[in-house]
Amino acid sequence: MEELELMEGLQEELKEHTKQVMQLLKEKNFREIKAIINDMYTQDTAQLLEELPEKDMPPVFRLLSKENAADTFVEMSTDSQELLISVFTDAELKAVFDEMFLDDAVDVIEEMPANVVKRIINQADSKTRQQINQILNYPKDSAGTIMTVEYVSLRSHWTVRECFDRIRQVGSDKETIYSCYVTDTKRKLLGVVSVRDLLMHDYETEIATFMETDFLVAETTDDKESVAQLISKYDLFSLPVVDKENRMVGIITVDDILDVVEEETTEDIAKMAAVLPSDTPYLEQSTWQIWKNRIPWLLVLLISSTFTGIVINAYEATLSALLFACVPMIMGTGGNAGSQASSTITRSLAVGEVQPRDFLHVLWKELRASVLLGLVLAVACFGKLMLIDGLLLGYPYTWDIALIVSVALLLTIVLAKLVGCLMPILAKVCKLDPAVVASPFITTIVDVLSLIIYCQIATSLLPAI
Amino acid sequence: MEELELMEGLQEELKEHTKQVMQLLKEKNFREIKAIINDMYTQDTAQLLEELPEKDMPPVFRLLSKENAADTFVEMSTDSQELLISVFTDAELKAVFDEMFLDDAVDVIEEMPANVVKRIINQADSKTRQQINQILNYPKDSAGTIMTVEYVSLRSHWTVRECFDRIRQVGSDKETIYSCYVTDTKRKLLGVVSVRDLLMHDYETEIATFMETDFLVAETTDDKESVAQLISKYDLFSLPVVDKENRMVGIITVDDILDVVEEETTEDIAKMAAVLPSDTPYLEQSTWQIWKNRIPWLLVLLISSTFTGIVINAYEATLSALLFACVPMIMGTGGNAGSQASSTITRSLAVGEVQPRDFLHVLWKELRASVLLGLVLAVACFGKLMLIDGLLLGYPYTWDIALIVSVALLLTIVLAKLVGCLMPILAKVCKLDPAVVASPFITTIVDVLSLIIYCQIATSLLPAI
Q: Which of A75, A180, A252, B315 pairs as cysteine with A152 (C-beta 3.0–4.6 A)?
């Protein structure tokens, strides 16, 4: 992440606007505020509103035009949305939700407490209510929960001209019009036609003659991450979603996928750092939530450290203080070497660059790399002990102790790399999550193994030299 | 990552096709192979080709239609591309590159050795050569390097009908036609018109009357990551790219951004794992490259472990073996607690959920969470030492030693959390990369601090009890 000039410029502008609005609020110049906030991108308006004192936010929000109000509302944090809903009249609530796309409305509803949900759903007409309930019933993280149910459907016997007429007639309500879906009277999906295809054909051509009949679809119950991989791999702009009976129910567009990818990555990074993932942005998480997400792994790792304790106690009589002083270095370097390998492989698995069947290839690569790394680090370690610790700091490290430590380091690194690269693949094969084993598990295993290696080498080599 | 049924189904199909092609190769049934590979998604064709024995790949590639050949070539790995180019005749080389979009061609060229680049550029006509050279000259990771120079430009006095005529005439060559750019005769960007806008207006309307004149642009030198953030934040399908004189030079589409996001995330994950990031997919990296990316941080961390050695040597006389045996646990738990905080904050900074000005808010949250976490872990640690290590394993842990260890653990966790949450923010403020400090740096700092706390508490409390 380098300096983000482009975004920073826009953020500066937003800050300027926020100051202006605050000043205008003091002057009670609502007409001017209305002009400013209705002329901004709704993402920025949402950010501006959230900068305002709580009591000023609802009155300023009410200055938004009907359409801007809905678009801005969608962009706000759950807390702000709840605050607004609590001061909305029923008519205002209905106005905002009627303007929203259905999938956005469902996203809002999913985060609200039960009494608020009830109030929102009561305002909706019966058809919308039914659709909302249906979407709420799709399994967590499924395609059904991120699709939009608004799309353009065409009939196969229509001509290009008729299709354009249809798009003109209904298109302004649809989130994307560029992919249109040809269905029969039972909503069965027959083909896909892009506006590009329409533009490339004569107005009088029947779309049945050129519609794409070999298309990819997702089912409502498919995992949204696999939908994201599909859209990303095949460079799609949108993907139709069908139910078990192959009836068209919605579409997923590439911009929805950007959000999914961001969310999934945040999840993977959390898991690699031994945190239970959360959908809530950090600043909106309560202390209690943060505690809950972090305590399980810390407890597991605390208990598993019993093993390192056992090893140290077992070799206690044999190891001199000088050798003990190197334990953190051995364990630390081993841990780092292991997590380098495991993070790399976990990420490669996640983006599909490595498949489980590549495991021999991976193993061979890591073995060679780890020997090279280990040799260089062993030499560096020997030098550090003799020069920095020995000559400079005056600790009585002799060449045989330095050699033992260096050899142990070399073996630790090779072992850490092999464990680090194999564990995520093993997890994937066992249908477990590679990200979870990537870091916390591997550190513990490598800690214990490296300690055993170290103590074993020290006790077996020391008398021999 | 759950089970990916959707993608797995497609992968199975691909495996089936690969087997089929291998069988047909034995039977020399090239007609059938041609039918199969020209009917697949080019991403899959690329994968299929790479599964074939090296000697079979070029002849099968030659069975692809002109257009499929170019699209498939773009999807292949750099190694395979180089192999193909080495067997291509000059005419074949020209045919493949002429069919490619310019930005794809540049992506391929960037990865090739100098002699291959020369051969490719020599095949191109002079205008293309000039464009390729210009793109190759944009700074690394800039908007200029990911944009496509092929887009639809319109004139402001044209009517909707004239615009559609224009799109029909040139559109089949353009990567995306859905956003069109209204420029004057000097290529200065005046407005943006989407095909959706065109469809929503009468055929005889002049586009000047409804084109969007308040639009976002990127400059060729803007960082691609900030372009990605912009497109993601404002839900754009494409973004025009202009030069310093505000002349239109290209566009960036949302599907390009998916790749950027994937790449940037991979980079961040690598940095957090103390690996220098690489553009090359793991399996294509040589052992030497892997070594080069991993050795620097391992060396730095090895040398910095001198400090933990100093601390242990300094307190060596005071600490009993029992207390020593707890060192890995204290350091390990501290390290985990610190990286939980640092990874969470680094990711929140990366996606813009946390800004540096939120640092007091973050600090307060982490302080409360860390005290709660620390208390629970201290109690767990006390219990573990007395019950598991004491009663079960028979080590002579007394309640005062267990208490000292637990108190040290509590303090370590609080400290680790505070260091962990502040360092990434500090890095961001200093315009450094939060991902780099997120893990390797923090582990070292936390290791040393936790050791000092532990030894200091042990030496100062032990006589007192």
A: A180
